[in-house]
Amino acid sequence: MAALEEGLHSARRCAVPAALLALGIGCAGESGESGSMVVRDSAGITIVENISAAWAEGEGWRLSDEPVLTIGVLEGPEEYQLFQAVAARQLRGGEIVVANSGTHELRFYDSTGVFLRAVGREGEGPGEFRMMGMMWRAGRDSLVVFDFGLTRLTVLSARGEFGRTFTLAQLPSGGPPLPVGPFSDGSFLAYTSAIGPGREMREGYSRDTFLYGRFAASGEIIDTLVRLPGHERQIATVGGRSRFVALPYGRSPVVAAAADRWYYGASDAWETERYSPAGTLTGITRRAVTNRPITADIAEDYRRSVLEGSSRAPDPFRQWRANMPLPETMPAYRQFLVDDEGNLWVAEYKRRGEQPSWAVFDPEGQFLGNVDTPADGRVSHIGSDFVLGIWDDEMDVQQVRMYRLVKEE
User: Residue 330's closest CA among 297, 371, 290?
Assistant: First the structure.
């Protein structure tokens, strides 16, 4: 742990503005420039400073104008009506599996969207669920589902046949660990608050830390890895009662696990950190862009949204929230995904209803360019030639959609 923290501190001390790096002014260690980026080494950590996109005008990737597959209807057979769908994945054979939390089922559809079968039901027994939250494809032929209600993971075959359940062991502090995702060897990355539920309530700003750990496929702890910044919060006392309140436009950690690495970002600025499964910091990637400012109009929209929609008598706490001071800028990003080819997709921070834009980085940290996705949805799975996710249509009907990923290079 000490070596990890020293390496991280050394790399951060070594930071210089991208404009100076472009002129060849950098830190000690190997340094080189490659068109739109500068790469250097600091204490064994690769630092990539991205100045501009690698894709030239007219090149790059984009989504097809219309989805090539849509699952989800307002009226019709129940197996096509989605309710609280939380994740969708394409399996290696082309089938689509949807975690439909509202009915406690995994629903399987063929590559054209035709319903095949459903597995699961409400309950606490084998193959039963209370509150599906996340789903991953693990190995070549397994699915893993995390149940928030039961705080356990269920392993199934690619056909949905029940395999086993397991629970992640408790880390040294905090509540039940929350999984981030599996590595290629079957182990899991997970985290918990490093402060614990009995923390003292002190008035004012706070930012907790998360403790990350690696767990065996049976749930035992392999190793605790590193503590990193968590959520920004405000502790308020209103009407004699203290409570934690998430800061409007506050910074929150963003994490993703891939086959042989995992990524962390504090969302303070355009910087991501790459770790090995064992918790060794191996790379830092930056972009030469600034966070979006919070204008007076955005601030007023926030205050109006807090105060609207309540028919009850004036709520002192609601008034307090409406008058919370806002930061000068929004967070840098809100979601990470690693596609099937190992590229890191970083969703820029957007307000509800705005079209999301994803910054795409290759496995070595070079910024390739941006890809836009439709608003009012959440991307679940990015393949070599598709983007799969869950969207709401104009009637607020949930739909699983697959868009073709067009690569013009």
Answer: 290
Could you tell me if 95 and 113 are in contact, meaning their C-beta atoms sit under 8 angstroms apart? no
Is pLDDT above 50 for 27? no
Q: Above 80 in pLDDT, residue 311? A: no
Identify the H or E element spanning 4: helix 2-13
Q: Can you tell me the distance from the alpha carbon of 275 to that of 46, in angstroms, rounded to the nearest whole number?
A: 11
User: What is the spatial distance between Cα 119 and Cα 181, in angstroms, rounded to a whole number?
Assistant: 22
Model pLDDT for residues 153-183, shown as the tens digit of each residue = 999 999 999 999 999 999 887 788 999 999 9
Q: Which pLDDT does position 198 carry in this prediction?
A: 52
Q: What mean pLDDT comes out for the span 378-392?
A: 97
Residue 401 to residue 70: CA distance in whole angstroms: 5
CA-derived radius of gyration, the chain: 22
Q: Are 259 and 267 in contact (CB under 8 A)?
A: no
Q: What is the DSSP string of 284-324?
A: EEEES--PPB--HHHHHHHHHHHHTT--SS--HHHHHHHTP
Long-range CB contacts for residues 172-177, cutoff 8 Å, separation at least 24: 172/211, 172/224, 173/211, 174/211, 176/151, 177/213, 177/215
CA distance 132 to 106: 10
